[in-house]
Amino acid sequence: MKTIAIACGGTGGHLSPGIAVAQRLMERNYRCILLISQKAVDQTLSALYPQLSFVRIPGIALSKKPLDGLRCLYYAAKNIYCSWQLLRMEQVAAVIGFGGFTNVGAILAAACLRKPCLLHEANQVVGRTIRLFGRLATKVYVPEGVVYNGNSQVSFCGFPLRRELQPMDPKAAKVQLGFDPDKPLVCVVGGSQGAHPLNRWVWEHAEQWVAHGIQVLCITGTNKMVQADKALSPSIVFKPFCSQMACLYSAADGVIARAGAGTIAELTHFAVPSILIPFPQSAEGHQLNNARVFEQRGGCVVVEQSAMDGLWNQVLGLLARNQEMRRALKQLKSIDWASFLADELETQIKR
Asked: Same structural domain for residues 39 and 187?
């Protein structure tokens, strides 16, 4: 049984596609080791997959602050050493990375050991890790329309989705989540780490939700629960984390979310109309780029965080145009990109 190392930690947007590819590879009798960070978001998501093998490796994101430079170098050295030891001791046949700081050591170790290394970029802006180290990879995969000249072997690839993300009956999904199946449901998802401005906006508009008969499920993120100083309607629910994302997307009549590549891929797969509010501090503005491309394809409405004063009217408009937007979303491509990457890995291993 051959072993594949999957470097995919740091955020849900890095870890989720790594899990998706691991699921496909395990179905083909490969052993997978997923290299993740020591952040809480990785621990929460990885705990849902006891059948997979996760290894926490040291590392922190690069910082522009001079005082953090030495700390970054220290953790980068530990990351490289741990990755080298793992690839050598586990006799890893190939590596695939999904961007982020956990990838650095795996990329360098694979290059030194002359093992195939594939890198996947999910966003409309190529991230720093792939820009700096992509030339060492065997092949780099980017979204359709993105130009990357750092490697001679570049292919287009969408976002790999986990096996369990399959549509359900909408009414049954609402009941499973504890909501009335005959009333509209808006789900607010701030990404794997939550979003304070979205959580606060939902709470501040509690009276409007109730007055319009709209149910709300707000996924706040760990340690970002709203501290309510007034009683809220039972139809407005705040949860720190949701492990039933297939149920959530199936139940939702509309979604308000950040604009990570994984969120957009899931919204497309479930054909859920959405309002995307890009995180203003995302690296090099990649979330705004992601959202604008999706909007141009008819998949969403984009509202920048500085313009959230007009968000309520956008919500009402989204629900009014629900069926029209769903039809547009169903026209967008939905390919099993996780299986595609598993095929690519097998091709490299057999060479």
From this structure: no
